[in-house]
Model the fold of this input.
Amino acid sequence: MKKNDLHDLVCSLTKSEKRYFKLQCRRQGTDGNYLRIFEVLEKQADFDERALREQFAGETFSNQLHVTKNYLREKILESLRDFHSQMSKDIVVKDLLKNVEILFYKELYGQAADELRRAESLANDYELHTAQIEVSRWKRRLEQTSHPNRYDRFAEILAEKKRAANALHNNLDCWDAIVQVSQKFMQRDTANNPLIPLIAPENAQSLESKVLVYNTLYIKNLREGKQAEAGKALSDLIKILESHPWRVKEDPVSYITTVNNLAGFHVFRGESDEALDVISRHRRFLENIGLPDTRRPVLKQVLRTTNIELEIYRTADDPSRHEDFFREAEVFVKKLAPKMPIEYLLSFQFQFAWVQFLKKDYDKALSWVNEPLNEWRKNSGHSVFRYLLLLNLMIHCERQNLFVLRYYVDSARRQFRKSGELRPYEQELLHFFSKIGQTPQSEHSKLRLDLRQKLFPQQGDSLVPEDALRMMDFRRWLDGK
Done:
């Protein structure tokens, strides 16, 4: 175990998980040294081994602190297994199979068979192929114990096991196809990397396999420039998933990911209304089946959905028409910020700042920019941080904060150099802001016109790459729109 692994584990716990762990420890009468370590780590924002050792200096167990830390890790994992025992049907089936094994060795064969029937039903309903194989193994053992000469029954069980193994093999083939096609797509070398033969949708034996096959078709059609077929693959997959609502409820990530991919596909094609319609229609489906929930993989996809909507509305001709959405989205983001992956939080902070900048509400724009900039050590490694640096300069430029602007230009230049080479358009922008801070206001209009010509020359290509222009429409800013 690495030194900070235990701290990372403690910090990953939710309030409910921490409360459950502490209650479980006290209920078991084991409120000892390992719980004291837990409480110290819980309070540390960043792991500090020295502070941890100083906390328990002079105590007997401090000489073998690593032993107590290892014990604490095992107790946390044990508590999490118990707390999340109903997290998924896969976990439930595994626990049922553990019961089968325990009851079998106690020679309580009838009870073992009852547990096995429950496991088999869930494994079949949710197409858990590895569990189906394990169920078959225990069915054979129970049958052999009770009726050692029923070879016809052994043959039936073996046939069931083979079907499960074939379905598992089919699933692996589908995984192999999507991995290889995705690799070739990333390589962008169609001449030297012909596509491998694909599995037809009708030959996919399980819902998971169908998800893989249709996503493979989506990637393949995108690579071949068949955009209509690519969009149809995702639409068809959504219909299939919606015909299995109990499976979507068990594993909503595949469904929400597919919806996000289709919405993102429409955004890429400039079809904002279609993207919003996709999100709206399928959000209603999720609400009807009681989703989404707060599991972290689900949360990440829900955040991605909101991010897509925010990107659409913030680049609209008149963002002020969408005030209701922005207010709701801000509440949503602030509520979930502590649970949010840092890259998503930065994206939201930038986008909200950009919306307020376009509305010329510079104070509110700064309130969104300042937080990530103040924590630059944590955030500077993410690509969106570069845009936050530029937006900060643009805000102070518009507010005519010329004295602080000179300071922020120098600071931004240092940050850019730490995170990589300056792109040509970034160099021009920094040069512009530096001159603005040293030039009379009467000459600022000319400086803006000069910058616009450099970034977007009438003859020749734009100096601002498409990816940067999608994030920040510098042309819109310079034209005062």
